[in-house]
Amino acid sequence: GVLTHLEMLEARAYEAAVKQEETEQQGEKLARLKERARELRRQRDELRAKVELQQKGQGGKEGALSDPAQPSARAVLEWKIKSLKAMLQMFYLTGISGKLTKRGVCFCVSTAYEGTYLDSYHLDLLTQPEVQIYRHSVPTFIPLEQVAKKYLQTDIRRFLSVLSDHLNAYAGRRYQADQLQEHFSDQLEGTLQRNSLCNLLVFNYHVSNQSETFLFNVRLLYGDLCCCLPTEVTVSCTPGAPACLAATAAAHSDLFRRTALHKAFRSFRRAEENVD
């Protein structure tokens, strides 16, 4: 009735307001990160220039007086420590925090999805004689070794960024599957099947059509392991279903590609309530 329609409009208005607030917060956070990144690049360039001056001074003739403007080894070390601390502070704003240890650096990668904090993973790095992973709590199915081989020795920032993308995407996919089972179990038929990485989901769900209920089968494949949305979606009807349900299956398939899994089912439920 009218009250139900009003409640639906209020719910949509609330969701829109929440989404707008999240977008504004993300924009502010991105601006802070860009400003911090510019400052870190400036510090890096200054440090690099001072190190080059020092190296040129050391390459001069033996006994020659050094340029008093050149930084001492202690000053260079202090700049390196300051730069590393600044990098840790910048990463903290992106869900990555860290602290210096006697043997290197210990990082903590925190994961979240849609503003909901999920899990944290730790990574202990040794810096001498070369950067290497000492111990970690990253799940075995995350391609840590491949990411480390590609970036750890040459670009530790890139290494942490890519690793964070993998962990957050996995956490997001798992969160969606958990939300589906928790809030929409009445629409599912049987058990939702998923692998450890949650990049392959298979399940069945009910679809009502003219007082009859039919079963849809879904297969979601997340080919991009750094993404929370599937790259391949297959939605099929049970044999003998009306021809008109093929269009419904195509529409659901498109929604699964563009929308988080639990949000897609929320849309299905609203559509059925409006029909009722």
From TrEMBL:
Residues 16-57 form a coiled coil. InterPro entries: CENP-O. Pfam families: CENP-O. It is found in: Chromosome, Centromere; Nucleus. The keyword Coiled coil applies. GO terms for cellular component: Mis6-Sim4 complex; nucleus. Its main location: nucleus. Keywords: Centromere, Chromosome, Coiled coil, Nucleus. Belongs to the CENP-O/MCM21 family. This is Centromere protein O. The gene is Cenpo.
